[in-house]
Amino acid sequence: MPLPEASMVWPPEKFADLYSTVRVNDAWYSGNVDVLADEYRNQDRILNRPAQLAGGLVGAAARMFWGKPTVQGEARTKLHVPVASDLATTSADLLFSEAPRILFPDSVPKQVRSRVDEIVNTPAMHSTLLEASEVAAALTGVFLRQVWDTDFEDHVMVDVVHPDKAVPEWRWGRLAAVTFWTVLDDDGKRTVRHLERHEPGRILHGLYVGETGQLGRPVPLTDHPATEYLADLVDMEGGLDTGVDTLTAAYIPNIKPSRRWRTNLDLAPYGRSDFEGIEPLFDALDEVYSAWMRDIKLAKARLIVPDGLLDSAGRGQGMTFDEDREIFTGAPMGGKMADAGIIAQQFDIRVEEHKATAMELLRAILRAAGYSLSTFGDDPMAVSTTATEVKARERMSERTRDKKSRYWASALAPFIRTLVNVDATVFGGQQVTELPEVKFQETTQKDPLDLAQTANQLRAAQAASTETLVRMQHPNWDRDTVNAEIDRIHAETGMDVIDPTTLGRVDTPEPVDEPDEAKDIKARADAMGVLIRSGVTPEAAAKRAGLTGVKFTGERPVTLRPKGE
After folding, report:
1. For every one of its 565 residues, what pLDDT tens digit does the chain have, with 9 covering 90 and above?
2. Is the bond into 11 cis (omega within 30 degrees of 0)?
3. Contact 396, 404 (CB under 8 A)
4. Which of 71, 137, 138, 83 has the alpha carbon at shortest distance from 286?
5. Cα–Cα distance between 524 and 521 in angstroms, integer?
6. Which domain holds residue 475?
7. Which of 270, 301, 327 is a domain's end point?
8. Structural domain contains residue 93
């Protein structure tokens, strides 16, 4: 499907509700109080107080704390608590604060796996995923697209696109194609947009000159400096082939299903933001904190002073009170003020009431978003706790993180495979057909002693290989580091006297010459002894060492040599 040829409403009207929701979520996420007040006060051009009597969404928005206009003549004293941005940041931290591992199976050639480590398992890629996951939590989801510039980097890169800068096409709820758009110039009368359409095997580019709300007419890519370089890359249709038959873009929903758009086929695949349905709680929390700050301002100590203690600044200049003055003489006082003198006025600050209300609202927000209070460090019981206790208190956050990680893993696996294949096409290399595994790390660091005890029990029960035990202790190590550690363990324990492929080695070693019969028997006997000392039963040790016909009497052997030698 080509890019639009005629002028049309842009972005398309069927996505208007999505863009409106994203705009409100962005206001909460950014924490800009001017934008936040403007969004709620001006929804559907609501500009006055009578709108607060209206019903439906219009009235609800106007009755929100941020939808109420400030009384004329008074300074705005509303305070915003950035809980929304904290939710988005926490969601990203739970998913990608520990870098995930993207691993292809051993059937993929080693040079391809090494290339993946160079372009995917890198700090730059992990930072991109961290950014994308924060955007997804706030704005319903996020798009990823593959870009490359041979004059800038020697590999394909990943770019993050926000959902309000894309027009997707869904098929069975999945992304089939997408058009990304960028405003290059906008002076209020003339708007220049760059459209970039991703479809399987192709990327199309177009430049349009229109106005606000209208796409306008297509013009040559050379008409703007930002797109001029593309003119030499695209064909007559404005596109270029990617060298693969899959989509070079992906959409990752924050979480599904979408409660707000569950019956809308165009919007339901977007999923839902962490903010969905809890905007009124954000608003109420801001109101509580604003009232708390108002109490503090009103509770400032003030003095009520009789007229006689005031010094005149001159006719028409008012009167002042010198609070550092020690003696007042000749002060004419009469009536009640003469008896009262100077009156100190200071109201109480309702700290506990406000604190309790704010804490209950915060609990309701976190519960609705699917997070535990201890994840935010506000759990009063979280003092000197063990890793097991921490994990128990953060169970709700862990469940939410596990749900989100499934959406990310299911979208990242085919996206990374396409990235590797595009990289092979552009920069040279071998394409793959296998899907990689996306492994998310544990968020709670395990006790090394617990891990060691678990590994010891698994080794004794012959329930795990050396590779599994090493990866359990060091989940962030790459393949080569794990292999090197396995070799060191085998060398130190004597387990390297037999074929390492039977003991957990990742790569198949080069074949070695067969030893003569005597050396072979001795090597197998030594290996059996090592296995027995490590906790393996004698019968199982003999079988693993390749010794058949060995009988065990229960006595401790002194020598393996026959009598008379």
Report:
1. 588 887 899 999 999 999 999 999 999 999 888 888 777 776 543 334 444 444 444 455 455 776 766 655 555 578 888 999 999 999 999 999 888 989 899 889 999 999 999 999 999 999 999 999 999 999 999 999 999 998 899 999 999 999 999 999 999 999 999 999 999 999 888 999 999 999 999 999 999 999 988 999 999 999 999 999 999 999 988 999 999 999 999 999 999 999 999 999 999 999 999 999 999 999 999 889 888 888 788 777 776 777 666 777 777 677 776 666 656 655 555 555 455 566 766 667 788 888 899 999 999 999 999 998 888 776 554 444 555 555 556 788 889 999 999 999 999 999 999 999 999 999 998 999 999 999 888 765 566 666 677 777 777 777 788 888 887 777 667 677 788 888 888 877 766 554 544 545 545 455 555 456 666 777 777 777 766 765 667 777 777 677 777 777 665 555 555 555 4
2. yes
3. no
4. 83
5. 5
6. 448-545
7. 270
8. yes
Among 253, 270, 287, residue at a domain's last position: 270
Rounded to an integer, what is the distance from CA 420 to the centroid of its chain?
A: 23
β-strands 157-161, 302-304: how paired? unpaired
Q: Is residue 227 part of a domain?
A: yes
> Which DSSP string do the residues of 345-371 spell out, in sequence order?
E-PPP-HHHHHHHHHHHHHHHHHHHT-
Question: Can you tell me whether residue 69 is helix, strand or coil?
Answer: coil
Cα of 62 vs its chain's centroid, Å: 32
Alpha-carbon distances of 492 from 156, 485, 532, rounded to whole Å: 42, 11, 16
CB 206 within 8 A of CB 195: yes
Looking at the domain assignment, is residue 540 inside a domain?
A: yes
- ∠ at Cα 27 (22, 30), nearest 5°? 115
CB of 544 closer than 8 Å to CB of 502: yes
Structural domain count, the chain: 2
Alpha-helical segments (H) within 377-507: 387-393, 395-427, 448-460, 466-473, 479-493
Q: Dihedral, CA atoms, 169, 171, 174, 178, nearest 10 degrees? A: -20
Please give the backbone phi and psi of residue 89, each rounded to the nearest 5 degrees, phi first: -65, -40
Is the residue at 493 inside a domain? Answer: yes
CB 153 within 8 Å of CB 41: no
d(Cα 483, Cα 449) in Å, to the nearest integer? 23
Residues whose CB is less than 8 angstroms from the CB of residue 40 and which lie 6 or more positions away in sequence, other chains included: 61, 62, 64, 66, 67
* pTM of model > 0.85: no
